[in-house]
């Protein structure tokens, strides 16, 4: 796609520093910026890249003034990253091949209803008693089990699996390889140490505007429901166990694992490889720094957690600093043991 500076100034209510005659031919990072490219600069940690970029134009904050002259045209806006993302979405839409109609072979079971304007890819399977809304896109090799309900404008990408009795809301996105509603990891351990599976007779409920990443698994509840609240975004390779309740507008990064029956509040942020033990309660607005190991409840929320076992981040940092400072002492002690004084 191409954009001109005058159009961008009007569209984003931007202030201009530089020429308005250049043409933008592509979007780029600061590091990879080339003539014709448009990038954004919103964090001081990318200052070096900003001053070296060869991009023709850069979105910056309204009050930003460069320390030295730069060759790039500056577009001063309220939120550089948000403006840049809008253009990414525009370019993405321009490159999309709009899928529609029904490809064969594909299967729809008995007493299932499918809304209008659906796309159903080849080798997709829809079970019995399924209800699917309008404008839904079901890509090839998707499996949808019996008694599933899917709302309007939802997309299920190739290879995703939705097991029986799952409920998926409107405008959800299920990426390739995701498994929704598989049996939970529940076993009864007898006196001899043998395991007997406890079946999952509950289901999974995804509310509106939920996105589930590739190869993520969300287990069905043993009884009741496993729930993901509206607007929540789950990355690739995440495990959500049986009976977990996740609130609204929460973000969960890759390789996070949430054990059974834990409740996670609204507007939480879980960094990559966060581990959460079972039967805990995490309140609203909790942020877990990547690789945090959460082993107890934080019901009041509004806290940032680090470490394993996780505790408040601002307390974790001085503890970690002290720990690091012990290393030279131990190294010195080791040298003394290897070479004792006469």
CATH architecture of the largest domain: 3 Solenoid
Low-confidence spans: pLDDT under 50, at least 5 residues? none
Strand arrangement across the biggest beta sheet:
8-11-14-17-20-25-28-31-34-37-39-40
Task: Please estimate the helix content.
Answer: 10-25%
| Protein structure class | alpha/beta
How far from one another are the termini?
77 Å
Q: Please report the first level of CATH classification, the CATH class of the largest domain.
A: Mainly Beta
Oligomer: single chain
CATH topology value of the largest domain:
UDP N-Acetylglucosamine Acyltransferase, domain 1
Q: What's the pLDDT, averaged over the residues?
A: 94
Number of helices in the DSSP assignment: 4
- The figure for the number of domains is 3
The total of beta strands comes to 40
Write the layout of secondary structure elements.
Elements lengths: L2 E2 H8 L2 E3 L5 E2 L1 E2 L9 E4 L6 H6 L4 E5 L11 E5 L2 H16 L5 E2 L4 E2 L4 E2 L4 E2 L4 E2 L4 E2 L4 E2 L4 E2 L4 E2 L4 E2 L4 E2 L4 E2 L4 E2 L4 E4 L4 E3 L5 E3 L5 E4 L4 E2 L4 E3 L5 E4 L4 E2 L4 E2 L4 E2 L4 E2 L4 E2 L4 E2 L4 E2 L4 E2 L4 E2 L3 E3 L4 E2 L8 E4 L4 E2 H26 L4
Parallel strand pairs: 4-5, 5-6, 6-7, 8-11, 9-12, 10-13, 11-14, 12-15, 13-16, 14-17, 15-18, 16-19, 17-20, 18-21, 19-24, 20-25, 21-26, 24-27, 25-28, 26-29, 27-30, 28-31, 29-32, 30-33, 31-34, 32-35, 33-36, 34-37, 35-38, 37-39
Antiparallel strand pairs: 1-3, 2-7, 22-23, 39-40
